[in-house]
Write a structure and sequence with these properties.
- The chain has helices spanning 7-10, 79-93, 147-164, 172-183, 216-227, and strands at residues 21-29, 32-40, 46-50, 56-60, 63-70, 73-78, 109-118, 121-129, 138-141, 185-189, 192-199.
- The protein is of the alpha+beta class.
- Strands 6-5-4-3-2-1-11-10-9-8-7 form an 11-stranded antiparallel β-sheet.
């Protein structure tokens, strides 16, 4: 699994903030050109909108929600429920699923790779070793102006690890990323790179859920309808 695979989830976390700010990231990977707009409120709520119509993540009162268009309106699913359903399905369909993460790619570790400047912020770069190519996989800034955003990414990355469950322990880089994200703010996470940061007030209504969250059973029904009974998540290069 590449570092970039965690980016969309990691951009919807939460942390206490000194003031509202809006950050824009852009993902460039394999022909993908996806903008991610992250709004951080002064009370720690987060909203992340992808440039895919109707695809939003909101973290409110310490919980993260994935919002899509359902058959009868907005569908709000708690990410912890989604992770629990995924773990249950993996155990049911393939108890040894996490063994698929034992690949040369998943054994890679992050090593320091100098310093770079992104969107006007200087950061320490890290690259996966061994891996072909010279671009950084993670760039961390310790600029205090980005502290609220950094806390957001760190909080959501912890949730992403929880969703992966035992599989996360098969990838040494996951622990490294956790520690680095706790120490600063990601200017780059895989192929997702910060474009700009704009301080300024945000309408509190932006962080309201558009509908009541689905129950875990409703989440299960929706996920099984979309992907079927066999879990297909696996690191690149595995079958």
């Amino acid at each position: 699994m590449q570092v970039g695979a965690m980016a969309a989830l990691a951009l919807a976390g939460a942390a206490p903030a000194k003031g509202d700010l809006t950050a824009t990231y852009r993902a460039h990977d394999g022909g993908m050109n996806m903008a991610i707009r992250v709004e951080v409120s002064a009370n720690g709520d987060i909203r992340a909108d992808l440039n895919v119509p109707g695809l939003t993540m909101i973290r409110k009162a310490g919980r993260s929600y994935f919002i899509t268009h359902g058959e009868s309106g907005p569908l709000v699913e708690d990410l912890e429920d989604m992770g629990a359903v995924l773990q249950e399905e993996m155990q049911r369909s393939d108890p040894h699923f996490c063994d698929k993460f034992r690949t040369p790619e998943s054994a890679a570790t992050l090593k320091p790779a100098g310093t770079v400047t992104i969107a006007g912020f200087r950061g320490e770069a890290y690259a996966l070793v061994p891996r072909a190519g010279g671009r950084p996989d993670l760039v961390i800034s310790r600029d205090p102006a980005l502290a609220a955003l950094g806390g957001a990414l760190a909080a959501q990355f912890r949730l992403s690890k929880m969703i992966l469950g035992e599989c996360a322990s098969r990838m040494p880089m996951m622990g490294q990323m956790d520690a680095l994200l706790e120490s600063g703010t990601a200017l780059q996470l895989g192929a997702t790179i910060l474009e700009k940061v704009e301080p300024g007030p945000i309408d509190p209504a932006r962080f309201d859920l558009p509908a009541p969250p689905a129950t875990r059973e409703q989440v299960r029904e929706t996920m099984m309808r979309k992907q079927g009974p066999v879990v297909t998540l696996a690191p690149r290069g595995t079958k």
